[in-house]
Design a protein that fits this description.
With about 80 residues, this protein is of the alpha+beta class. The protein has helices at about 25-40, 55-75, and strands spanning about 10-15, 45-50.
Length: about 80
Amino acid sequence: MPGAPEEAGDRRSLLTGFGRRPDAPEQAGTEGHRIVDEAAAGLGWTRVRSPLERPGVVLAALLGFCVLLLIVALVLLL
């Protein structure tokens, strides 16, 4: 069967990320994730996160904090 693990110990993974389209209703996204998860589980696949997801979130938080500090410093100087 295509996509199925070739041996009993062989594992496959489904690389996912996060994100949300502003025009998509919340229920449609939840239903879509469920459909994909069920199909992947049927093939023996597991869901894993992108290796760049966590560093990207940390970097965005640090940059946001730096911008906030810059704005506060500019307000205090004025």
